[in-house]
Amino acid sequence: MSTVTNRQQFTFQAEIKQLLQLLSHSLYQSREIAIRELISNASDALDKMRFVAMTEETYRDASPLEIVVEGRPDARELVIRDNGIGMTHDELVTNLGTIAHSGSLEFLKNVPAGGKADVSLIGQFGVGFYSAFMLADSVRVRSRSYKETSGWEWESDGSGTFSVAEAEGLPRGTEIILHLKDDAKEFADDYRIKSVLKTYSGFVPHPIKVGDQVVNDQKPIWVEPKGQVTDEQHARFYQYLTHRADESPLWHLHMAVDSPIQFRAILYCPKTNVERLGFGRLEHGISLCAKRILVQGDCRDLLPEYLRFLYGLVDSEDLPLNVSRETLQDNSVIRKIRGVLTKGVLDKLSALATEKPDEYLDFYKQFGPTLKEGIAVDPTNRDRVAKLLRFASSRSEDGSEPTGLEDYIKRAPADSKAIYYLGGPDLASIRKSPNLEIFRKRNLEVLLLTDPIDEFVMTSLHAFDNKTLTSIDASDLELPGLDAEKPTEAEEPTTGGFGKVLDLFRSSLGDRVESVRASKRLTDSPCCLVNADGGLSIQMQRLLKANNREFPASRRILEVNPDAPLIQRLVQLSANPENEPFIRLCGLQLWANTMVLEGETAEPEEMVARVQALMEQAAQAKSSIII
Ligand code: ADP
Ligand code: MG
After folding, report:
1. 111 to each of 115, 274, 280, 282, how far by Cα in Å?
2. Which residue in 49, 351, 352, 494 could disulfide with 84, CB within 3.0 to 4.6 Å?
3. Is the pLDDT of residue 27 over 60?
């Protein structure tokens, strides 16, 4: 028996109070996940103890590492005990009084005050220990650290404070005693406990005992031959690794590799990308095992960052058991595994894209934005990643059917040296862009980029299969045969007529544009904006501005179509100097119109005044016709 003395009171961190409030009032049906969280903490504590014993002889002893679960129906208690590393006084106060995971903080920020959260997501954000309050109305944690000779008792009813007292006579490790809520008393029954443990903790790599019986089989499915692992087993292992209840992975990859290094791995892709739900960056990694024993959970060095959405486990015979976090980082074995794993994932995706294109698109919708980062950061696999990219295209009626670069090339004319694209705020606006006219006329496909990142991707990819990725709003766009059709700049008339109109546009636009010139690319629209050499598109500028407000806007070139009916009318009107103010006004409004098509409302007050002035002039002209 242990004696408890000198009780001290503490207050929970504000976020914890909010979290406990949420958890204790949630009607979350899978609240047995709380047991899984506590078991997984016990298992972590055993892993850490094994590592300590391996590296420091003083702490070695003969007792086997294990977890014991005990139900006490009469006392309405559920007890989970481990002989792991335990916690010191300070560790109890910080580990069980604050939230260390930024993911959980993000989660809480997204919960409307007093509102209901999707508690089923909670498991993914490391609320771990606190989930005990879904089942219990009070929790006691009795723990002795392997470094100390006596221990501590932590206690709380989850309402805002907790206490810590000295506890004599505790064995090494941690004991969690849940006093179950009235409606959760079933969790004190052995039968119920065993069924929960079988469901959620089958893969825990340490024995879990109820009475004398070990209830988990601890079977490492990754060492089994691929074909023998069932979907059901994969789903369970996925749930164990991800702490997600009732979900199966979108796809899995099971690898057995012998050279250049021996390892086995199972990787899982979730169905949804939680980063897109606004919970911040994913922070988990891959579990790393040496000879079937966990050496590091959440190892981030095993996959590049752009594949950070994958969960899984890697097990190698070629790693020493006592490898530490520091030595892992520049470990050549890890580097080699990472190389093979990355290629394995990209090959898997490529096969999925060919064999099950619909499933691949589901994947791409969720993880495409993350995957794209690979173009910029992984030169070795740039082409592999490039093949996996998908874009909307001018080929289909509404641009909605995505295409890859390889398919684009297959459809393009044999002598074509470029892959054309155009960025914009959304498909509807891009499709209205005057820049597309000549491509439609010549039946040339253009990729339509709505994700601002895509223009960066195209710029950093530069070329694919020897075809240059070309933005069709570049000022120096070259189209085969283009120059023959229309006058070049040198031949452009500078006085009278069209030249006069351009001059008037120039004078009214001032430094809103880099320059004003005759267009060779337009067929119907009066005007379009193109990028000056080295200039950035509106989308790119917007993206940069979002990150750095000081970013100077780069000016663009206004191209004017001499064949457009409106421009021809203006050319006629320019013969009379009285019409000059009107033509200037038109120049400003044409420029504003092209900006609107790119999703940018430039100078809105001026624009309203201008449209009003133009309407007044139009009304005047009409009334003179009536009279
Ligand atoms: P996580 O396990 O994701 O770190 P938890 O809320 O589940 O988050 O646990 C918080 C911390 O409390 C753990 O990181 C660990 O340091 C400590 N802890 C919880 N349970 C135990 C245990 N049984 N033995 C030792 N330490 C524990
Ligand atoms: Mg935990």
Report:
1. 7, 15, 14, 19
2. 49
3. no
C-beta 59 within 6 A of ligand 1: no
Domains defined for the chain, CATH in brackets: 3-214 (3.30.565.10), 226-357 (3.30.230.80), 391-471 (3.40.50.11260), 489-624 (1.20.120.790)
CA–CA separation, 342 vs 381, rounded Å? Answer: 9
Strands 67-72 and 208-210: parallel
Q: How far is the CA of 153 from the centre of ligand 2 (A)?
A: 19
Give yes or no for residue 70 having a pLDDT over 50: yes
**148 vs 160: CA distance, rounded Å:** 29
pTM of the model: 0.77
Which residue owns the Cα nearest ligand 1 atom 12?
Answer: 95
Q: 152: CA distance to ligand 2 center in Å? A: 20
For the CA of 48, the closest atom of ligand 1 is 25
pLDDT at 211 over 50: yes
Which numbered atom of ligand 1 lies nearest the CA of 101?
Answer: 3
Q: Is the CB of 92 under 6 A from ligand 1?
A: no
Query: Among the atoms of ligand 1, which is closest to the Cα of residue 84?
Result: 24
Q: For atom 11 of ligand 1, which residue has the closest CA?
A: 95
From first CA to last CA, the distance across the chain in angstroms is: 109
- Taken in order 508, 513, 514, 518, the sign of the CA dihedral is negative
pLDDT band for position 126 (cuts 50, 70, 90): low
Q: Measured from the CB, is residue 126 less than 6 Å from ligand 1?
A: yes
Q: Which of 165, 204, 169, 184 is nearest to 68 (CA)?
A: 204
Q: How far apart are CA 38 and CA 134, in angstroms?
A: 12
46 alpha carbon to ligand 1 midpoint, in Å? 11
Task: Decide: 47 in ligand 1 pocket, CB within 6 A.
Answer: no
pLDDT higher than 90, residue 75 = yes
- pLDDT at res. 490: 44
Q: Which residues touch 305 (CB under 8 Å, ≥6 apart)?
A: 373, 377
* Closest residue CA from atom 16 of ligand 1: 95
Q: pLDDT tens digit string along 488-516?
A: 444 455 556 899 999 999 999 999 999 99
Ligand number nearest to the C-alpha of 104: 1
Per-residue pLDDT tens digits for 258-302:
988 999 999 999 999 988 877 777 778 899 998 888 888 889 999
Please classify residue 443 by burial: count the beta carbons closer than 10 Å to its beta carbon, then call 0-12 exposed, 13-18 middle and 19+ buried: exposed
For residue 357, pLDDT over 50 is answered with: yes
- Is a pLDDT exceeding 50 seen at residue 89? yes
Confidence of residue 1 (pLDDT cuts 50, 70, 90): low
Distance CA 73, CA 194 (A): 14
Q: Which of 41, 85, 152 to mutate to test the pocket of ligand 1 (most atoms within 8 A of CB)?
A: 41
Q: Whose CA is nearest to atom 2 of ligand 1?
A: 41
Residue closest via CA to ligand 1's atom 10 equals 95
Atom of ligand 1 nearest to the CA of 130: 6
